Amino acid sequence: MTTAFVLGGGGILGAVEVGMLRALLERGITPDLVLGTSVGALNGALVAREPRLPVIERLTELWSETARSRDVYGDRPLRTVRRAVATGTHIYSPKPLTQRLEDELGDTTFADLEVRLQVCAASIERSAEHWFTSGPLVPAIVASAAVPGLLPPARVETEWGVEHFLDGGIVNSIPVGRAVALGATRVFVLQVGRVDRPLSVPTRPWEVARVSFEVARRHRFTRELAEIPDDVEAHVLPAAGTSAKDDSMLAFRDFSSVQRRIDASYDAALAYLDEHVTTDPA
Fold first, then answer.
1. Contact between residue 39 and residue 145 where contact means Cβ atoms under 8 Å apart
2. Three-state DSSP class for 52?
3. 15 and 262 in contact (C-beta within 8 Å)?
4. What is the distance between the alpha carbons of residues 262 and 192, in angstroms, rounded to a whole number?
5. C-alpha distance from residue 122 to each of 29, 125, 143, 171 (Å)
């Protein structure tokens, strides 16, 4: 059996994936393959580096530190306005995120990991879904998490030369199909809950882009789930601790509920696993 963990994107809501990972590892379920998009790339990199329960403590600390420091999206409003005017493309600097990743991962490469990891990003030049599978981890994760409008496109050297990347969620937010294509026979999907909430017709100009993106990402996810072969065991873990208010324009800055989300998703995932999956407690 080849077990894959598929960790989707979702910004601050990625904290729920920590609770899910805790439930999986406590039940003795470890991955042979990890696929990550956006914040799922960050969570996935840490669990691929250490696919054991101690990683949960480090992930929780990392999320808590980010919540306390507010350094990733913590610029003052005036500074963000100035940056938006100066660049015309983004309101936050990528330096805090990059520094936090470098502090955590240093020069770690994909080859250094205990478990095979692949990270998704969107190539601008090729208009394509790109999978980072080798080389240093930090540039790959920064590229995968380059949210349009918030952070600038990430510049990374690839086999095609220097390319610029945007958030992987644009092309493959929850890459279930990729896991199956790579030979997974058991897939655990760690998603942040947005796909579970009904969409409403947008009533304001700024809602149009969000709803359009949600339609596209949900369509692909639903299609890929439906196309999973009968001989592949697939589990979409329930996301808890999130709600429709997390989809508001400024919700990406609200780190106040990190621990509550971790705990809620842990309880929900544990209940799901106990009911649907035969496991061996760690």
1. yes
2. coil
3. yes
4. 11
5. 30, 9, 8, 6
Q: Please give the average per-residue pLDDT across 85-102, as a whole number.
A: 75
Helix (H) / strand (E) containing 5: strand 3-7
Q: For 78-141, give the DSSP string.
A: HHHHHHHHHHSSBSS-SHHHHHHHHHHHTT-BGGG-SSEEEEEEEETTTTEEEEE-SSBHHHHH
Q: Dihedral of the CA atoms 270, 275, 279, 282 (nearest 10)?
A: 30
CA pair distance 189, 168, nearest whole angstrom = 16
Look at 35 and 66; give whichever has higher pLDDT.
35
- DSSP-derived letter for residue 189 is E
> DSSP letter string over 152-179?
PPEEEEETTEEEEEEETHHHHSS-HHHH
What pLDDT shows up at residue 142? 96
**What angle, 0 to 180 degrees and rounded to 10, lies between the N-to-C axes of helices 95-105 and 39-49?**
10
The per-residue pLDDT for 257 is 79
The pLDDT of 57-75, averaged and rounded, is 74
Choose between 237 and 218: higher pLDDT. 237
Residue in this structure with the two tokens 């945007």, named with its chain if needed: 166
Span 183-212, pLDDT tens digits = 999 999 999 877 888 888 988 887 898 888
Neighbours of 256 (CB within 10 A): 9
